Structures are given as structure tokens and as C-alpha cells.
Amino acid sequence: MAGKTRPISERTIARLSLYRRLLNVLQAEGVTHVVSRQLADLAGRTAAQVRRDLMVLGYAGSSARGYEVAGLIQSMRQFLDHPGGQNAALVGVGNLGKALLRHFIGRRPNLAITAAFDSDPSKANRPINACRVWPMDRLARVVRSRDIRVAIIAVPPEVAQEVADRLVAAGVRGILNFAPVCLRVPDDVYVEDLDMTVSLEKVAYFARRDEAPS
Amino acid sequence: MAGKTRPISERTIARLSLYRRLLNVLQAEGVTHVVSRQLADLAGRTAAQVRRDLMVLGYAGSSARGYEVAGLIQSMRQFLDHPGGQNAALVGVGNLGKALLRHFIGRRPNLAITAAFDSDPSKANRPINACRVWPMDRLARVVRSRDIRVAIIAVPPEVAQEVADRLVAAGVRGILNFAPVCLRVPDDVYVEDLDMTVSLEKVAYFARRDEAPS
DNA sequence: TCGTGTGAAGTAGTTCACAGCA
DNA sequence: TGCTGTGAACTACTTCACACGA
User: Torsion-angle region of residue B175: left (phi > 0), alpha (psi -120 to 50) or beta?
Assistant: First the structure.
């Protein structure tokens, strides 16, 4: 019955998330209105693309003053965020995991890491950055009881697939994967790979683009 | 004189880097030949795309046995890696920086993090994972003297732009940016943003795709 | 006049499908 | 037969350009 939104591209979603962050900064600076060109400059995009992206929100700007910052942010919240808030789990509390916990602290109240897991018993049950760390054998129960649908995998590659399987079995439908392996998951589970090695090699390659020997 | 390769897409480069990692695993397992379909399955891609990507290498597979693993790896090395090896710098040795140092240890001998910088004097001059940590005021000199062209920014967002400016001034041409800000750099500097907040919001959004209330 | 919203055009990226080779 | 290499078709994404509204 409810209007099924037709699929919106991953890239549009990523840019909307970026725009929102930029808008939050503008709002904190007291800016009340913004035109597509400004947002485009801040995001390193074109004005046309910003307008195209914002179309999916169904939030109309004014042709005189552009978009109202507060309204846009509100619209994005409705579009991007889960209505009742969404909890995320983190698996693997090594250096990367700790960095992630710190990174997400207080940043998105609507999408907070509320449970962490680690196989190292010495880490278990000690809260890190106000987030309790559970031993691995509690994963299924904690994830299910808190209705966690989103998880971050920050474990060594050898165990990443096993962790993914357990998360999916416990009800997780979206995974942000930092482990350098290709996870096999059912079709209805979304995986985003953040592969540092690949990214660094990409940077190294393109850093040489215009290289000319003297 | 040398044939100028026409621009190859970022995504092809990223996939080649991924294929290489998969090939290294296969080689370690004693596999000597691979067909496009196998590689595609491992990478979660289609066979046609693998073949298309491999075309840029100019390495011909055999129609009987597919591609020779060792030959492909060799070809990729020639294509992706800097001939004489390339040093990378890391700026910001917090949890994330430490995780990165550990992650890249021994992984790519041709592209190693050989210098790290941090503004915290207590971290300076202590080697972490065999990589010396310098105070920030040595950045320009160390980067220049080692001919470092690739850098990773893992500092808080407030100082990321300043760090980028200093890196670029010191000769860096490619930046892997973990700070959640859009860096302004000259056109000939390549920036890859690895934005964890954006990625997590993307995952959260797509995790809800097929969500149907009971 | 200036900025949005958006069809239409253009560009980039992927997949198809098949010739050719071992 | 089975697999590569690749033009051609297709799909996805971006930009153009302009009607419309404040």
C-alpha cells in the first residue's frame, strides 16, 4: 500500500549522507539557507548533481533563496534514518575497532554502536568508550535481543567469514566490512567493503598519473 | 615515445588490486592456472568483467587453461606498482593510525608505510610496528628526503586540511583520507576519501531495503 | 533576475554474445 | 569443446539546458 520507493543508487545515498554532514556544519554556523552551488562546492560536486540528489527527498527548495537548511536536514533525517533509531554492533575491538568506537561516539545518535564483541576474554566485559564489550559467545543473544540489524566487522581476515555468518544468522542485514576478504552472504544482506589495501594501491596508482621523468 | 595509457577507471584499478590479492592466495595454495569465472566468483563479479579488467594488463590468457597465476601476478605488479617501490607516510598515530600501521606491515613490500607523524610529543621518536614516529615539524623534511608521494591522513577533522596542505607542499601527490572532511587540493593531487560515517549510514540505509513490517 | 526541478542528451561502466584459437 | 578477447548493446550515472516560479 505504502509507496514503494524505487531503488536509489548507492552513490546518491552516500552523497546525501555527506550533504547532511555539511549542512550540520552550516547550521552550527548559523546559516539558514543554502543554494545548490554552495553545497556542491563544499562537497566537491556539481550543482546539478546536488539538485538531482536532493530530488529523492521530495523536499522543495525555494527558487528565491535555495534550500532551507533546517528543513533539508529534517528531510534527510526522515529519508536516511530509521524512524525509531537503529543500533549497530561492532565485532573486533583491536586498534581499528577502538578507533571506530571513538569515531562514532555521539556522532549519530540515531545510529550508535551499542554493542561490541571480541574474542579476547581480557577485553570482555570492560566498557570501552561507554560501550560494553561482550565475549563472542554472547553475540547471537545480544544482537537478537537488541534487534541489531547493522554490524561492523573489524576482525582479522581469517575469521571474518565466520563472524559474518554468525551475524547474519542473528538477524543482521547490513555489514560494513573492514576485513580484506570477500564475504559470502545471502542476497538480502547488504555488504559494504572498506578495503584499505585496495584503497591505498589505488591512491598509489593515481598519484603517479602525470608523473614524467625529468 | 612510450605509449601513454589512456585513462583507466578508478573502479578497474580497485578491482585489479582485489584480483591480485585473490591470486596471491591461490598461488600460495599451489594453484597455477585460473579461468575468469573462478576469479569472478572469488571477487563477487562477473566473468566478463574480470576479462575486461584484465585486458588493460595486456597479458594474454590461454584459451585452453585460462590465465597463468604467476604470469598474471607478475603483470599486475608491472602495471600497478611503482617500478622502484613507493614509500607512504602516515599522519596521525591514534588508534586508527596504529591499526593502519599494523594492517600494512609486510603486506605490500612495494608500498610500505615508512614514516609516521604525530603531533603528540610523547609518541614522537618511539617506533611503532617498526615504523618511526616523527614530530609534525619534521614532516616536510622527511617526506621530501624520502621522496614520499603517497600519504594517509588519520588525524581529527579539524586539522586534516592543514595536514593535507603540508603534505602537498612537501611533494605528496596521492592522499588516502580518513578524516570526515572534503579536502581542497590542487588538481594534480589524487584524493581518496574513506569516510566511515558515510559508509555506515549507507549500510544502515540498505539494510532496511526489503524491510517489511509484520 | 536567479535558482530550482527535470526531461533530454551525453558519458561512463557493465554485460552480452560470438569469433577465434588451442 | 571450452575459454579468451572484444565489438556492440545495454544500463547506470552525470551534466546540460531550459521552463517555471518567487
Answer: beta
